[in-house]
Design a protein that fits this description.
- The strands form two sheets. Strands 3-4-5 form a three-stranded parallel beta sheet. A two-stranded parallel ribbon has the order 1-2.
- It starts with 9 loop residues before the first helix and ends in a 21-residue tail after the last helix.
- Strand 4, helix 6 and strand 5 form a beta-alpha-beta unit.
- The longest helix is centred in the N-terminal third of the chain and has 17 residues.
- Helix 1 runs antiparallel to helix 8.
- Helix content is 49%, strand content 9%.
- 25% of the residues are buried.
C-alpha cells in the first residue's frame, strides 16, 4: 500500500508511525495491529512497527474497512477504551469508513494525519474533511505523544519520550540534544552500535 502513497514523503510516514507505536508502548496504550490481504496484495506490517510489538500478531482482514471485521472490533472492545487513535493507509479507504462507524458506535476518534498516506493530496484531504465533518479530531504523532506525557514532572516516562523525540522528530530532537549537552552539561546521546548484517544464504 505504501507504493501508492503520493501525498506525504513515504519515509516520513514510516517514521511517524514508528514514533507513535513507541509512544503507545511507553504509555501502555492498548494497540490493535491489523493488515489486509498480506499474502495477495498489501504485504506484511512494516517490520519497523512489528519490532515495537514483537509478540503481537496483526489481525488479518479481507475488508479495507477494519470496522467491518469482527476480530478487529472485538479487539477494540476488549481494550475497554472509548477513545481510538487511528492511522492507516490509504486514508480514504482504510481510515474514513472505520472512523465514521466507530463514531456512530459511540467512540471518540483521533485520526493521526501525518501517519496516514493516500494516492494523492486531494484524496487525503477529502478523506480528512469527511472524518472531521462527522466528528473525528485530526492530530499528529507528536501531538498525541505530548498529550499522553502532558506534564514534564512525570519522570517515569520523561526519558523514554525524550528518546523518541531525539530519534524521530528532526529539529525538535536536535534542539533537545543540544540543550542537554550545551546547557545542562549532559553527555551526548549514544545509540546502539550499528552492526552490519551478515549475508544470508540467498545473497551469497
Amino acid at each position: 500500500m505504501l507504493f501508492g502513497v503520493a501525498n506525504f514523503d513515504r519515509q516520513s510516514i514510516i517514521n511517524n508511525n514508528v514514533a507513535l507505536a513507541k509512544a503507545a508502548r511507553v504509555f501502555n496504550v492498548p494497540v490493535v495491529l491489523s493488515t489486509v490481504e498480506t499474502k495477495t496484495f498489501s504485504g506484511n506490517v512494516w517490520p519497523q512497527i512489528q519490532a515495537v510489538f514483537p509478540k503481537q500478531t496483526p489481525i488479518e482482514r479481507t475488508t479495507m474497512n477494519s470496522w467491518d471485521d469482527e476480530n478487529f472490533v472485538a479487539s477494540v472492545k476488549k481494550s475497554g477504551r472509548k477513545k481510538i487513535v487511528l492511522s492507516g493507509l490509504w486514508t480514504e479507504s482504510c481510515v474514513t469508513l472505520p472512523t465514521i462507524q466507530a463514531l456512530h458506535d459511540g467512540y471518540e476518534v483521533y485520526v493521526v494525519e501525518d501517519c496516514c498516506g493516500d494516492v494523492s493530496q486531494l484524496a487525503h484531504d477529502n478523506a480528512m474533511k469527511r472524518v472531521i465533518q462527522v466528528g473525528a479530531k485530526p492530530v499528529t504523532a507528536l501531538s498525541v505523544m505530548l498529550e499522553w506525557q502532558r506534564d514534564w514532572a512525570h519522570k517515569d516516562t520523561y526519558d523514554a519520550v525524550m528518546e523518541i523525540v531525539k530519534t524521530h522528530f528532526g529539529a525538535y530532537g536536535v534542539g533537545v540534544e543540544y540543550a542537554y549537552i550545551m546547557v545542562h552539561g549532559a553527555p551526548a546521546t549514544q545509540f546502539p552500535e550499528y552492526l552490519v548484517p551478515t549475508a544470508t544464504a540467498a545473497n551469497k
